[in-house]
């Protein structure tokens, strides 16, 4: 896997992935940026959420759950000192669908956390306290 990050101007960078996709990252105005894109540490959180949500949705699909939406809300805390690393990350899944089985949702979230999500497992191994929970929204 490869990626390139190129400085554009001020605190703005363009990240380009090996698959040919690009994203703009930028800093706040008080740090020379123009707030034109997410911060690099926000991108890290999005990566964790995307990785874990992909796992959960894949497992729900394989278990033939009739979900219509799966959202993960991510909250994080950072150290007060430099480097301001993440110390805690919490992933709260909101799974919406018809006749969803709680056991299947619980299993999907647990397996993502313990076995499949490379991003969260890597950060956990580095000392970040990572937690997960979920809520099921059943549609009539």
UniProtKB/TrEMBL annotation:
| Pfam families in the cross-refs | OsmC
Q: What is the superkingdom listed in this entry's lineage?
A: Bacteria
What SUPFAM superfamilies does this protein's entry cite?
OsmC-like
What is the name of this protein? Protein YhfA
Q: What organism does the UniProt record list as the source?
A: Sinobacterium norvegicum
């Amino acid at each position: 896997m490869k990626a390139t990050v190129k400085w554009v101007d001020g605190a703005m960078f363009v990240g380009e992935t090996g698959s040919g996709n690009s994203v703009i990252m930028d800093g706040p105005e008080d740090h020379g940026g123009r707030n034109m894109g997410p911060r690099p540490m926000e991108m890290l959180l999005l990566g964790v959420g995307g990785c874990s949500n992909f796992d959960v949705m894949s497992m729900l699909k394989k278990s033939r759950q009739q979900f219509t939406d799966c959202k993960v809300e991510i909250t994080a805390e950072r150290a007060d000192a430099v480097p301001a690393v993440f110390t805690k990350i919490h992933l709260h899944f909101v799974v919406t669908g018809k006749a969803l089985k709680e056991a299947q949702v619980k299993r999907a979230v647990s397996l993502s956390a313990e076995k499949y999500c490379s991003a969260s497992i890597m950060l956990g191994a580095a000392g970040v306290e990572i937690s997960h929970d979920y809520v099921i929204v059943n549609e009539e």
